[in-house]
Amino acid sequence: MFFPDGSGRSVHFPITVPFSGRNMAALLLWLLSAGALFFASDANEAYKRLPEAYKKGVDLALEKLSSHAGIQHHFLFFRSLTQSDIEPGFDVTYIYHHFYLKATKCQKGTVDSSACQFRNDRPLIDCAVCYKTFRGEIEQEPKPYVHCVHKPALTEDMKTSRVDHCNTLGYSSGSPTLLASTGNK
Fold first, then answer.
1. Chain centroid to CA 48: how far?
2. Rounded to an integer, what distance in angstroms lies between the CA atom of residue 126 and that of residue 102?
3. Burial level of 123, CB count in 10 A (0-12/13-18/19+)?
4. For 78-89, how does the pLDDT look when each residue is reduced to its tens digit (9 = 90+)?
5. Which residues does residue 86 pair with via DSSP β-bridges, in sequence order?
6. What are the helix (H) ranges across 50-141?
């Protein structure tokens, strides 16, 4: 056998572990906390990127959703599927927005949702809203349309009804159809 010091006895080299058990636990806790903050801020990031006019429609849908007695959790905007708008002039805009809301781990009525994390054990809420704005504010006439349903329950008839209703909103003012406008997906 080869012994590094040539004496025939074994030489022990100290092995230093950069983290002891307590330090490793602290590091893991810190990483989990940082990850939770990342995901929580990520939950609000999609909403923050929306134009103001679209945020107002999301807020309207969230308000309507939270007014239902059967809803137990706080929901947040998850992502847009379709956005379109028509600006016929005179500071008027007709908006159509199809998007998902997702349940969070926070209870219904949470005021500060910055720490709310998305739940992955609940179905998405599929929402379509259309409304008229004047100078950036939602008009009460024609009445804003909000239709939200759990995604698995959404039928083709419901999708068709949404489109028909929103197209009627645009036609009633003499403007072209909302869904024929060039929006982004």
1. 10
2. 9
3. middle
4. 999 999 999 999
5. 94
6. 52-66
